[in-house]
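SEQUENCE WITH STRUCTURE:
===
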Amino acid sequence: MPGIRALNRVQIGAMAALNGTTDIPTTYWRGTGVLDDLTEVQFPDEYVGIIGGVNRSYIAMTGGEIELEADATFEQLPYLFNAGIHTVTTPTSDATGSGLLWTYNLQFADTDPIASSDITYLVIEAGDNQQAEIMRSAFVREMTLSGEQGQALMVTATLEGQAVSTTTFTSGLSVPTVETILFSKGKLYIDPSTDTAGTTQKSGTLISMELPLTTGWQKIPTGDGNLYFSQVKRVGDEGTLQITFEHDSTATAEIAAWRAQTERVIRLIWTGSALGTPGTHSTKKLTLDLYGKWSEFDTLDEADGNNRVTGTFRIGYSSGAAKKAVFSVVNELTSLP
């Protein structure tokens, strides 16, 4: 039967280690994605007395990537953080409640988890009813969280893997239950970087945000008997946060902080449904704590007569706080399915 878009699927799973060859998916990705085979085929130049040459070719390198897109959920964001920041195998249990805390500290020191074994590589199957393909040893090279009022918080992640090949979908997987993170349930806090993140809430000003992050993990192709990369190295991340504010007192205060180049800590926090058993945490939650300075503010803009302004915040290490960024998720999963 020819392929039908409605029968597309994306299945993912955590691998035991880089360079595994037998790992298979364990759950569905609750979003979209299409595998892209990046195999490099070369047709060498040669003089053999034939106009246009002959069909001699070779495969110089294999590889693949996939862009996973979805409304961000409390249950599946940890897959991307594990594959793009560092692995959290066991979340922190709540002593009195059912909430589990997954915490990711953006690395800045050689004592942080920056070895190639410190991230979780994913195996990904994607395709339709006509053809399924598989890619292993995938890591998150880039990801973006974004949202605006009246919509879901969205996530896009580019994952790079070793090779793409034909397969048969792993059968018997259950579609996981997930909860969408709603942008309008978010809160914004801005404070001096020397203060505790989340001290001062800025109400009624957050219109939209976008957080692109280049994770710093990259493939290292080496001559070791394989056409695909067999090493991954963390070479340095880069992240910025764009926030569109109401043109109000918060906006003007942050413009002043930009002009003075004052360090800030920005907390964005989104809450979800109530946990089965409340304790230290009472709801599902996504928290982003970002340290850095404003790098620019755009000229005054408007939408339907309402003035607004957009600033770009560069994430960087704060010596006073001894932090750069902390991402955390509260859900009720003891492990990733």
The longest strand covers residues 132-148. The chain has two helices and 22 strands.
